[in-house]
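Hi R.,

Here's the input for the phosphoric acid mono(formamide)ester complex you asked about:
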Amino acid sequence: MQVTEVKSKTGLPRHFLNTQDWSWSELCALLDHARELKENPIQPLLNGKSVALVFFNPSLRTRASFDIGATQLGGHAVVLEPGGSSWEMAFGEGEVMDGAAEEHAKEAARVLSKYCDIIALRAFPKFRDWSVDRRDLVLTAFATHASVPVINMETITHPCQELAHLMALREYFGTDDLKGKKYVLTWTYHPKPLNTAVANSAAMIATRAGMDVTLLCPDERYLLDERYMGFATQNAEDTGGSFEVSHDIEAAYDGADIVYAKSWGAIPFFGNWEAEKPIRDANKHFIVDEQKMARTNNACFSHCLPARRNIKATDAVMDSPNSLIIEEAENRLHVQKALMTTVAGTKV
Ligand code: CP
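And here is the predicted structure with phosphoric acid mono(formamide)ester in place:
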């Protein structure tokens, strides 16, 4: 197979930081290519290419699927864990590095750009101050200083998960047109406050696909950041779908076609999680169970994984024929292969 490299029109690297930065037709092209790669997984599209996978946080799916995906396309992946097996890293502009960090992202991004053709990065919020976390400083530093494309492997959004989720829904319903589907994004209990990234992403991609989206959460304190509420609202307006908030479990589940579950920490309590705990503990009944699913239009269920069984969703829901959890996780491999070839400019 002859692989021709296509340079970006601007000469600048084409980062994949957030799906909102990519047009709908570009996202659909990625999914079309992912479908081809699912059919024919071994192709030399990344021959001689290297990908740095920089993990500030743990992973099973993301790490395995990027590494194996690069290998299946003839490329090579190197995993780096700042603060673990590689140097702890600072990333603040003008930072006086008198703490534990030995290296700044300015150097790390530029050095890795000399070795690699793509840098992919996972950096979760610190959970102390959302006004800082929402600036996505690690990803922004790498995107600013790298001279190769940067892929977001989950920071305050999880765009690769969005693609895999959308691909799984298209496969399940047997159509690329999901307009008119009733989509419920439900908060669930979890003993610890978790990242809002997947919820932000689900709200964005479901509205982008023109579905009628309900964000179900215990109360106003669990609303997503205004940036992502705004994207979801605007997307719904643009596509003719809808985006609404509900705190009524039964009404939200009634007639749903899709139930997507995720737990997240309430933004007003960042840095004050002890105060959030009683509120969280009072909402264990948000678990996705058979009784709630029985109210739906025989809905499919999914979750990004990892998921605590019988805490977020019951065994019966996780293992039901309508559960897409494994299909969605599988699709991470296919969509990320499509993504790597696209940003590397080697898609034929
Ligand atoms: N869904 C997801 O990103 O899984 P990992 O955290 O295991 O990578």
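One thing worth noting: The chain has two domains: 19-157+332-344, 161-328.

Cheers,
M.
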